[in-house]
Amino acid sequence: xxxxxxxxxxxxxxxxxxxxxxxxxxxxxxxxxxxxxxxxxxxxxxxxxxxxxxxxxxxxxxxxxxxxxxxxxxxxxxxxxxxxxxxxxxxxxxxxxxxxxxxxxxxxxxxxxxxxxxxxxxxxxxxxxxxxxxxxxxxxxxxxxxxxxxxxxxxxxxxxxxxxxxxxxxxxxxxxxxxxxxxxxxxxxxxxxxxxxxxxxxxxxxxxxxxxxxxxxxxxxxxxxxxxxxxxxxxxxxxxxxxxxxxxxxxxxxxxxxxxxxxxxxxxxxxxxxxxxxxxxxxxxxxxxxxxxxxxxxxxxxxxxxxxxxxxxxxxxxxxxxxxxxxxxxxxxxxxxxxxxxxxxxxxxxxxxxxxxxxxxxxxxxxxxxxxxxxxxxxxxxxxxxxxxxxxxxxxxxxxxxxxxxxxxxxxxxxxxxxxxxxxxxxxxxxxxxxxxxxxxxxxxxxxxxxxxxxxxxxxxxxxxxxxxxxxxxxxxxxxxxxxxxxxxxxxxxxxxxxxxxxxxxxxxxxxxxxxxxxxxxxxxxxxxxxxxxxxxxxxx
Length: 541
Ligand code: ADP
Ligand code: MG
Hints:
It is a single chain. The protein has 3 domains: 3-207 and 288-388, ATPase, nucleotide binding domain (Nucleotidyltransferase, domain 5, 2-Layer Sandwich), CATH 3.30.420; 209-283, Actin, Chain A, domain 4 (Alpha-Beta Complex), CATH 3.90.640.10; 394-537, Substrate Binding Domain Of DNAk, Chain A, domain 1 (Sandwich). Strand 26 and strand 27 (502-509) form a beta hairpin. The protein is built from 13 helices and 29 strands. It is α+β, with helices and mostly antiparallel strands. Helix 9 (285-301) crosses helix 10. Bound molecules: adenosine-5'-diphosphate and magnesium ion (MG). The site of magnesium ion (MG) has 6 residues, from loops.
């Protein structure tokens, strides 16, 4: 039984496990000679689908048969699909191809991948989370759980050094996204358990290493023109492709060296361009500034909290300019350990902790004897941490407010963004009228912090306009059948419970103790019938 942690990234993915000493290790992608796998899929033909660097190399020449950045589409409402050779692929299916490739990498090295934890951005809503889980299942993986990327990074950092209470700012600059997360790690009084809580999130999902690539591309392109006395529009497509295919490597070299050379065939003539790290830093200074502004605005969300450690995560933090800028703001507090692997390693630690607790519950395995001494260390880790994530959205039922002059159908936000998961809330409601036969209890997800707001459907289930900023989504409904002659004063107790895997909705008729429940993972789980009004109301009068 092998347990793995997977960082399913926008641009690069990574898979890790704990070695026999209980230390996290990344499984090397030998084919691409890398610790990571480019999250790029090339549909070469009907019979050949390629994932990884080779697929990435085909972006310039065969762009229309290549899918990248699919993580931006997963679980999104517009249901985007891709078609190749008469077959339609959903973002879930494309993601499953990337996960399958990671699984193959492990299997080619003689292990099997059974249980996994997959990481997701802290800001992913239920639907994106559920779609990610589905992708894992489609790839034949048993997804034990999902974990937020910054939480995983913090976990891999904790595993190196245990400390007192700490507030950590995770600065994650990847290929296409920038995420700032402020996390609190706390020790309980008995000194053992360490808790990880997400305090605030911020960032920009369109800012990443790709923007640095683009600046470098423009610079090299202009230099090629200058060298050859050409105007940019006089450069042929091959020259542009040639430059494009070389920028990322040049960028990576500049993380190590003060200058690098790029050779380009400009309209057939060999041209050599020298780029210094200074040049590169000058042309991208505004991008660094942008990330620091997001750091600032995220800090403002948790007024006056002292940051003890800043953790640099994401491949783009290999660029010295990033470390320098962050060091300048947080002198002496910056930590950076394998930034492109930290998330996968943290997921591997969490996966093994979960694997252990499952074993414990089942009472079948003696922890210490499963895998020799490594398991002891897992047990030690498991005893040390509880991971506490926050609700990524607000949740609540649609109910009728009869207080005003006209009854109003509203969402009552039971659970708000940022509550500790699992989050549970209960409230009592009443049937609209005597002898009501049934209640359609609708569950909504939204991004509002208000106590109540307008739902995206009306009482009859017809779509209606809402504030776009609230991103209101109907998750599903629970049908509550009431026995004959139920008076409208009957108390119906409604409970929402939200954890990382979804929303559990429960209704109890307190007169009969009849219990109704449903588990909602996505809006597509349940067909919502557009139908007559069968709701609950807020007050008993
Ligand atoms: P993701 O965006 O999928 O989370 P990563 O965290 O692995 O992926 O970040 C990928 C980005 O990091 C890419 O833009 C890549 O070019 C960049 N990167 C990786 N290594 C280096 C390096 N040594 N120097 C500069 N950039 C790097
Ligand atoms: Mg990442």
